[in-house]
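Blackboard transcription, Thursday session:
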Amino acid sequence: MLTLVLADAELELVPQEVQGHPSVRAHARRRGRSPSAVLLDSSFHHPALRALPDGSRRGRPDIVHFFLVIALDSIANIEGQLETVVHTRHDQVLRCRPDTRIPKSYSRFVGLMEELLTKGAVPPEGEPLLRLESLTLGGFLARAPRPAVVLHEAGARHELEEVFAGRDEATVVVGGFPQGDFLHPPPGDLPRISLHGHPLKAWTAASEVLTAWRRSRPRRGPRTMG
Amino acid sequence: MLTLVLADAELELVPQEVQGHPSVRAHARRRGRSPSAVLLDSSFHHPALRALPDGSRRGRPDIVHFFLVIALDSIANIEGQLETVVHTRHDQVLRCRPDTRIPKSYSRFVGLMEELLTKGAVPPEGEPLLRLESLTLGGFLARAPRPAVVLHEAGARHELEEVFAGRDEATVVVGGFPQGDFLHPPPGDLPRISLHGHPLKAWTAASEVLTAWRRSRPRRGPRTMG
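(Written on the board underneath:)
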C-alpha cells in the first residue's frame, strides 16, 4: 500500500481578515454564499490576497483538484494500493476513501471542498467519502508507513523504484504549494529525494510516484510482446 | 521525441442547432458572449446536450484541460522530448508549443480554447503558442513518427517500455472522450495496446505514457543510492 501525501496544500476558506474585502464580497454574492463559507481562490480573490501574509502562494484549490483527480484515477488506486491524503497550511488532514469520485468540474469540486471545510466530512451523515481532522504533518507522518520519503528539488537524485523495491508499503510526501518551501517541514529524519533538477508541479510529482509504485509491483496476468 | 495525441477529444463551440436553447442562452448571457462563441460544456449545457446526437459524451473541455496540464508539465516536456497534439470530433488538430503555459484556472482555460476555436491560433498575431488546423486523425497519423500505437482497453496487454525500448521517437494515441469508442478509429495497422484490464481516464493513460517515455531514456547526471 502506497500512502501519497500532498503537504501544506493551499486549501482554506476565506480567512476572517479579508471576508469584508470587496473582491471577496462580490464573488460570494454572485455565488449566493456567505464570505466565510467560500473557498479562498487566487483566481477570484487576487486583490484580497495581497492583504494576507503569504498572499502570493495562498488560495490554490486547483492544485488539490489536479492532485486528487490524478491520484484517485490512477492504476494504483484502481488496484486498491493507494491511500490519498491532503494536509493543509492550517494543519488539517483530509483523507479520501479510494472509491471517492472527485468531480472533474472545477466549480463542483469547489462546492465539495466548501462542504468538507465547513462540515468536516462529506457526506456529513453516515460513512464519509472525505473526512477532515486537525492533525499536523509531523503527527500524521509519525504513524505513516515506512519507508517514508519527501520529494524535494534540493534532495539527492534518486528514482522512486529504488525506494519502493521489495517494499509492501511506503509513504511519499509531495508539496502542495505553488512556490516557496514547506511551511511545516517534514521531520528531518525522512530522506529528501529529487526526481529531476527542475522543480516539478505537484501533479507531475504525483504522477511519477503513482506510476513508479505500479512498476515496482509484481506484474499480473499474461503479457507477451510481438 | 514522443508525440502524444489525444484523439476524438470532445472540444467544440456550441453547435448551431442548440445555440437558441435556453440553457445555452442563459449561460452565454452570464458570460457576456454570443452563444456561437461559447465552448460546449456538459457542466453548463446538460439540457441542451440531450437534443444533440452523441449528447451524452459531448462538451468535455475538462478532459482536454487535464490532459494538456499533465502533458505540458511533464518531465518529458521539460526536457524537450514531447510534441503534444489534440484531435477533436470535428477533425481539427490543435498543436501546442512546448513552452505554452496552460492556465490552471478552468475558467481561463475555457477562454483560451474559445479564442483558439474562433480565431484558429493563440495569440492570433505573431508566432502562435497554440494553433488549429483542419486535419483528420488518419491524416495526422500518416505522417506521425513510428512506432505508433493506440491505447485501447480491448488491445493486447503490454507495457509501454516494450514499445519505446531502443527508439528515438514514437507516437501514442489516447482517446479524449468520456465513454464509448473512437468516432474516427485510428488506422487498423497501428497496434492497440492495453495497459490495464480496467478502462483508464485520458489523464491516467497520458501519465503512464509520459513516465514510461522518461524511464526508457538513458538516465542523465550522477545518481547514487544510500
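Lecturer's comment: The interface with chain B takes residues 43, 62-63, 66, 69-70, 73-75, 78, 104-108, 156-159, 162, 195-198, 200-201, 203-204, 207-208, 210-212, 215, 219, 221-225 of chain A (CB under 8 Å).
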